């Protein structure tokens, strides 16, 4: 069974965080949420999230994927945390998946994990003038090797379903998706 780390930073986009956590857990993927400290996380719209643990507690653990929810303030807080960069680089260089949605691809870019890759993000959250080797696309979700990026709250469900497919396979993705009653 796959294990996924979802770091939760103050100001994260709650719709993205909860959608990712919920859908992956529906697929029986182990999801660990970790705060940057021991405080509850106040998300961008005021929803308070209680992480399972802290980043310090999970640093020695092994994960199959790390997924960064967006939100401008949340992405900024993730990007300022050297532990997040360390975890991203460790997983990336182990050949594991790294994923980010909305404003959070800036964290991947700052960690140099989007160099010479295709990606997507919330409009204007990633300045191509600062990262000229990244090819930004307008697609809802972009997969480039083991790096998966997505645009924003409206693409969170598609993003989470693709994460499920990558970790658990297409039949599990289809099973989870059928229970969501999404229009075809």
Task: Report on the architecture of this protein.
The structure is a single chain. This protein has 184 residues and is of the alpha/beta class. The chain has a single domain, classed as Rossmann fold. The protein is 36% helix and 21% strand. The protein has seven helices and eleven strands. The strands form three sheets. Strands 5-2-1-6-7-11-10 form a seven-stranded mixed sheet, with helices on both faces. Strands 3-4 form a two-stranded antiparallel sheet. The chain has a two-stranded parallel ribbon with strand order 8-9. Helix 1 packs parallel to helix 6 and helix 6 packs antiparallel against helix 7. The two termini are 29 Å apart. This is DJ-1 family protein. Keywords: Repeat. InterPro entries: Class_I_gatase-like (IPR029062), DJ-1 (IPR006287), DJ-1/PfpI (IPR002818), Prot/Nucl_acid_deglycase (IPR050325). One of its GO terms (cellular component) is cytoplasm. It holds the Pfam family DJ-1_PfpI.
Descriptors for this entry?
single chain, 184 residues, alpha/beta, Rossmann fold, seven-stranded mixed β-sheet, two-stranded antiparallel ribbon, 36% helix, 21% strand, globular, DJ-1/PfpI, Prot/Nucl_acid_deglycase, repeat, DJ-1 family protein
Compact summary:
The chain has 184 residues and is an alpha/beta fold. 36% of the residues lie in helices and 21% in strands.
């Amino acid at each position: 069974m796959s294990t996924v780390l979802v770091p939760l930073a103050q100001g994260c986009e709650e719709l993205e965080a909860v959608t990712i956590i919920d859908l992956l857990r529906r697929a029986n993927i182990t999801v660990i949420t970790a705060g940057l400290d021991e405080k509850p996380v106040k998300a961008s719209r005021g929803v308070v999230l209680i992480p399972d643990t802290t980043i310090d507690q999970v640093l020695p653990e092994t994960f199959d994927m790390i997924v960064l929810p967006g939100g401008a303030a949340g992405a900024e807080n993730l990007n300022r945390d050297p532990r997040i960069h360390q975890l991203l680089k460790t997983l990336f260089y182990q050949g594991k998946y790294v994923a980010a949605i909305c404003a959070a691809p800036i964290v991947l870019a700052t960690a140099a994990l989007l160099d010479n890759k295709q990606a997507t993000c919330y409009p204007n959250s990633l300045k191509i003038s600062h990262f000229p080797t990244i090819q930004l696309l307008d697609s809802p979700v972009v997969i480039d090797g083991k790096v998966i990026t997505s645009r924003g709250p409206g693409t969170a469900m598609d993003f989470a379903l693709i994460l499920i497919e990558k970790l658990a396979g297409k039949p599990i993705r289809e099973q989870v998706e059928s229970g969501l009653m999404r229009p075809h």
